[in-house]
């Protein structure tokens, strides 16, 4: 049993240290540690007094199912696929804190109602009545997340998570919770040990290979962070020159604008000058932000009218869109205000739009849409009618420095940066593409980042 404790405890430490700030890893580590202390039961039973034995029993038998459900909720919420009831409850509480407290009630009641005898003995039937549903709900949420996932790469990771956890959790319910109701002295460990060994062995292997439990994901995020550090370090070297050149552009634009204001000039000329001025201001803000950060993105979040930001972005891209004969349609069902960093979100959206334009060298249609899901997440989608991507390309499209473009000015960082910005914002970037069917990229802003949603008429820039 001591080996059982050591194996689970080490696994919990690996999971936690790989991403200590990630809710999924924290909740999984909590679940594994609560399960691990069960391996100390026999040792604690040999010690004088019962306080340690009683504490281990309570933690292992009551907090383990609680921890399993916390992991499932964090996992499904992290991937935007949690069950409707749990998600809506979390939305009402502006997070999952209220839900965690509610789910803790059976644990507290079990401890309170258990007789305070020298050697604690939990009522097995009462424990089964809530711990069993907790384990089953965990399995249902994990399976549901797998079924509802549209991204092939993420779907594969979710399938592995289901394979690792669901069989073992069902075995725990049957051979521990149910069996103890029938026979309190049932030798459950002889039956459950095989499932635990399977989950641990396969889990560690899959975690490093596929990132199913978050370990490889940490390595991927380190790559992203290193990439952003390289970008910002390079920008720091060139910052002075770039800032001076942008200043010249801005000053010259102001001078031209002042001259034209005195004459009867075509409004279209003023509009083009305004585009140049807006672009130079945005470039200056972007360079300043990256230069100041040096390692990671530090978001300066504020309420942003997303519809206006999108419209402004499209307007600035009009010369390129007209040149490439791209027809643009913007369907805005809603007019949301979201908490985000305007500069970074604008740049991220610009990256996606430019990628879409480059995917249609012979012209085509660019469709942007903005809507809200049933749970009030805001989704901004950019869809093109380009050639789409092969499966092999889709697997690598988010990798730093990967690019399908032949031009020397493309470094393969646009989608990496965009993904990173959305992750830091608390949202997600969803990517869908098929060869011959175009590409669809969706920016998902979670409900907790949305301050207001108003209806909006269709906008056609």
TrEMBL record:
Query: In this entry, which stretches build a coiled coil?
Result: none
- GO function term, MF aspect, one: ATP binding
Enzyme class, first EC level, given as a word = transferase
Which transformation does this protein catalyse, written as a reaction?
ATP + protein L-histidine = ADP + protein N-phospho-L-histidine
Keyword annotations for this protein, in alphabetical order, are: ATP-binding, Kinase, Membrane, Nucleotide-binding, Phosphoprotein, Transferase, Transmembrane, Transmembrane helix, Two-component regulatory system
One Gene Ontology term of the biological-process aspect is:
phosphorelay signal transduction system
Histidine kinase domain ranges (all copies): 237-449
Per the UniProt entry, the Enzyme Commission number(s) are 2.7.13.3
The residues that cross the membrane are: 51-76, 97-115, 127-147, 159-182, 188-209
**How is this protein named in the record?**
histidine kinase
Instruction: Tell me which species this is from.
Output: Paenibacillus swuensis
In this record, what's one Pfam family? Answer: HATPase_c
Q: Which InterPro entries match?
A: HATPase_C_sf, HATPase_dom, His_kinase_dom, Sig_transdc_His_kin-like_C
